[in-house]
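INFO  loader      accepted 1 record
INFO  loader      residues=168
INFO  predictor   begin
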Amino acid sequence: MQFDLKRFFQNGQKPYKAELKCELGGYDWPGYQPQQPIRAVFVAVPTLQGVELELSVSAVVNTQCARCLEPMEQEFSFKREWMLRMEELESEELELPISENGQLDLDELVYEELILEVPSMLLCSVDCQGLCPVCGKPKAAGCTCCTADSVDAPADERLAILKQLLNE
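INFO  predictor   done
INFO  writer      dumping tokens
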């Protein structure tokens, strides 16, 4: 969806509000996939200084735990606010996806802000124990090969030489 920010600066006399359902399935997501559609609320309010913009986003992300690789989903809800003056529309330093003719791409804005909000490593729980270095199964599933007696055993026979070097 496009919002004509330039025209809003010129003619906007009352607040503008749009509830969005963004279908961003074709976008490139780094290691996770949000459930579609992503819900967002965009508000533009004219002020004496310029325009106040507010974006609220609510999304559920499907991914794998970074430690145990189990499938998981996590919800993210956040709000971003900007204050713009008319002269900033021409600035190259403006970090909003605004075209040369003053159109704000709301889908691209939702995408960019969600990318910034979601951490690069997601965990199923704070105390996730991860995978067993011997058998490769999730430790939470009851892996018994990593007991206190077998901790010294190398995870892979090819790594035995490294253990030997460490002992020397």
